[in-house]
Amino acid sequence: MAGRPSRWSLAGQLFALQAAIVVIVLTGVAVAAYLQFDETNRDSTAEEMLGVAHTLAASPDVRAALHAPDPVAVLQPLAERVRTDTATDFVVVMRADGIRLSHPNPAEIGRVFQGTIAPALRGDQHFTETYTGTLGPSVRAVVPVLDGGRVVGLVSVGRTVEAVSRELERQTPLFAGAAVVALLLAAGGSWLVSRWLRRSTHDLGPAELARMYEYYDAVLHAVREGLLLLDRSGRIQLVNDEARRLLALAPDVQGRRVDEVGLPAELGAALAGGEARDDEIHLTADRIVVVSQGAARWAGRHLGTVVTLRDHTELRALVSELQTIRGFADSLNAQAHEAANQLHTVISLIELGRADDALEFATTELAVSQQLTDAVLAGIAVPELAALVVGKAAEAGERGVALQVADGTFVPAGVADPRDLVTIVGNLLDNAIDAAEDAPAPRWVRISGGVADDAVELRVADSGPGIAAADAERAFARGWSTKPHDGLGRGLGLALARQAARRHGGWVELDVAADGSATGTRGAEFAVRLPLVRA
């Protein structure tokens, strides 16, 4: 869904938003810093004025001049000299009643000081203030002149607010430069972030991303096939509902390696390997799945692997049932031909006047077929399994193999799902008949069963070449077979039989003698145990 990018992509919108936030924040910070520096500059100026005033007030020359007949003649030059040396705007010395004895403007001498002097007249206090006097708004300090503990005069030193502001203005380019540098750095960082985001989102807008997520998520969970996305390390990045069902995955498998989530070892190793696979059949705990796997690539980069899973369980069951039905049909067809031959024989014997021989021949054939049917019906209480054994007996007879039901065989009803019983016994009988057919005469397959220790035990033995002890466990692996095959039709029977038995808390094993051959005179013997009460 590579739609046309919107006019404003997510990266573009994020960059614009970040730029606006940065400008607002930096502007606020710059204004706050300017105001803070202005306040600090005023406080610093006030402290400086207070220091100059203290120094002048403590001067013996000032105390002596205040008692002189003409204090102005002494104090005016002294005050102007101090004003010039300290770069202040005014230095005013006054009597205790506030009459000026010095001033930058000589016309103001003899007039009353404009400002607050009351705190300083108490003799133990000094203070600073911003006050509008004859020179305009100024930052000033007022300090008492003491003589023997008595206030004999006052000293006021100040600097106009305009002069203080000029000093602040000299610092303004520094503030502006710092703000511009910070703005450029923030803009550069935002641009890098937006560029990375543009690559990650393929320059799509929020609405397009939301729409893609909604559609993709809906499609992902709606498809009938299982889907797994694995990264290059074999970790699960995405899994849909069907894959969870087929593989019985836990809810928290994302981010874990596919061979560490409880899958059968063979299937986990196959998926973790990452090799291309096409319609491979694998077994899970209770299902048969068809696995296809291919590389996931984007713009030439290898991202991982895509695994698709299809449920083959029901199809396999249908194929088995179809094969059984075909076997029954072939057996019925063969039996029809055999019955026709026997009927012709009986008729011919009667026509030849040998009625007793015809009766004996017909009775013998009926007894042979009825014996197997009676044994099956008497010992096997599961109709589906009984029908299977009768059908397999006919099929085996057509292939020159005698299928025998051991005396005392008993399989009660309800021991397991009939379909699973058919899967277990049918696959064991098929393998036994195949093995016995290729062996020397006499060729036979024997099935027996009974109840012991609250479980049903079944055994299927054959007169075939047998299976080596070294292959006793490998025989149950997917794809293992003693006959050449293409990997599609053979190598699943024993694995399916064991899988079906485990679903009911049972097991299927190959009995092996101490010398490494199958138990019995020759051939293989498989044992099945199914609890009467499902585990």
- CATH topology call of the largest domain: Beta-Lactamase
Secondary-structure element series:
HHHEHEEEHHEEHHEEEHHHEHEEHEE
Determine the CATH superfamily of the largest domain. PAS domain
Shape: rod-shaped
Q: Give the strand tally.
A: 14
**Main sheet: strand order:** 6-5-9-8-7
* Major sheet summary line: 5 strands, antiparallel
Percent strand:
15-25%
N-to-C terminal Cα separation, in Å? Answer: 49 Å
Q: What is the gyration radius calculated from CA atoms?
A: 54 Å
Q: How many structural domains?
A: 3
Q: CATH class of the largest domain, please?
A: Alpha Beta
- Alpha plus pi helix count: 13
What's the mean pLDDT score? 78
Q: Which secondary-structure class do the elements indicate?
A: alpha+beta
Description:
By secondary structure, this protein is α+β, with helices and mostly antiparallel strands. The chain has 13 helices and 14 strands. It has a 5-stranded antiparallel sheet with strand order 6-5-9-8-7. Helix 1 packs antiparallel against helix 5, helix 10 packs across helix 11 and helix 12 packs antiparallel against helix 13. The longest helix is centred in the first third of the chain and has 48 residues. The two termini are 49 Å apart.
